[in-house]
Amino acid sequence: MRSAARSAAVSVILSGLLSGAGFALDAAEAYDWPLPDWMPRPSVPEDNPMSAAKVELGRHLFYDARLSGDGTVACASCHDQGRAFTDGRQVAVGIHGTHGKLNAPSLANVAYLPVNSWANPHMTSLEFQALVPLFGEAPDEMGATGQEARIFATLAEDPYYAQAFAQAFPQQPRPELFTVTRALGAFQRSLMSFDSAYDRFKYGGELDALSDAAKRGEQLFFDHRFECYHCHQGVLFTDNFKREGSPWVETGFHNTGLYADYPVSAPGRIEFTAEPGDAGLFRTPSLRNVAVTAPYMHDGSIPDLRGVLAHYAKGGREGHSNQDGMIVGFTATEAEIADLIAFLESLTDKRLLTNPDHADPWPKDHPARLKRAQP
User: What is the DSSP string of 151-201?
Assistant: First the structure.
């Protein structure tokens, strides 16, 4: 019975997710991407074009705990702006204090990622990914399953949403699965982060933007001795990337040798492919803003950057038959480790962390945030 009910619920969800496909293009308007000249625009789904009205609606929904089953968990509960949209915990915590299985990933520049999951290679859409925290039951994150009608009715009664949905979706002006997931996707695509000290030094011509230690750390980062850049490559410092007009996308999953036997709760890409060669493989995270996104690794098992460097210096913690061949260990002086950390710290974009365009829009006494859990 539970399986049949779950299948029925999935059918309803997918029906709702697709029901507005014929109307989405009507909301299209010019959108001013907050990007520097040197950065190409990201890829955007044809059925969810960007608009300022949709991004602003998505921001309100992102911070609205009424999307959860008991009004206590919002997207922002695990994605805090001050931490580059991570939560500082080892693993995410959902409704009723339920602990998840994985560390909450950063949402900065998520528009450029072809895969929106630590391990699921099929999770290629932010709109589809939104269903996981909303309706997922293993673990239970926001606990909205079975409460869709009540939640959408509650949103419809809010005076802000009465106008905002009409502005963002003129031909489908109601809070429903299609419009909610599209607006959340649009807001997340607006979270651009390209104003770090390293950006100003590398692309902006500000030669004094980077400290001498960070400059030495950059040289070490791209040195074959450390091999950091093979996986943390390109403008996002990850081997996962897609942009507007890309003839192909780059996807990178690696086994970093954390465990000899990966736990059943987080086994890696094998969970979705059943391929033995995918055991322990997880998506390479971007290193942008890495200094404010501790703890690290897919399960948050390493508390700080020094610990991460020690892990790779050792050549992995426990080792695994699928461990990436680039992780062979290295030796480094204490001064070199300090320089590498200085370089990683130079990737922090303080404007992202404080940009009012990304901040909580709700008053403190508003029902959207009154009971909302914070990291």
Answer: HHHHHHTSHHHHHHHHHH-TTS-S-SHHHHHHHHHHHHHT-----SHHHHH
Query: CA-CA distance, 305 to 293, in Å (whole number)?
Result: 10
Rounded Cα distance, 338 and 316, in Å: 20
Query: What count of other Cβ atoms lies within 10 Å of the Cβ of residue 4?
Result: 8
Q: Tell me the mean pLDDT in the region 219-237.
A: 96
pLDDT tens readout for residues 36-58: 999 999 999 999 999 999 999 99
Helix (H) or strand (E) holding 45: none
Q: Are 181 and 13 in contact (CB under 8 A)?
A: no
Q: Could you tell me if residue 39 is left (phi over 0), alpha (psi between -120 and 50 degrees) or otherwise beta?
A: beta
What distance in Å separates the CA atoms of residue 360 and residue 65, rounded to the nearest whole number?
12
pTM exceeds 0.85, yes or no = yes
Using a 10 angstrom Cβ sphere, with 0-12 exposed, 13-18 middle and 19 or more buried, the burial of residue 195 is middle
Say how far apart CA 289 and CA 80 lie, in whole Å: 13
pLDDT tens digits, one per residue of 264-310: 999 999 999 999 999 999 999 999 999 999 999 999 999 999 999 99
What pLDDT was estimated at residue 248? 86
3-class secondary-structure state, position 296: strand
Residue pair 224/326 in contact by the 8 Å Cβ criterion: no
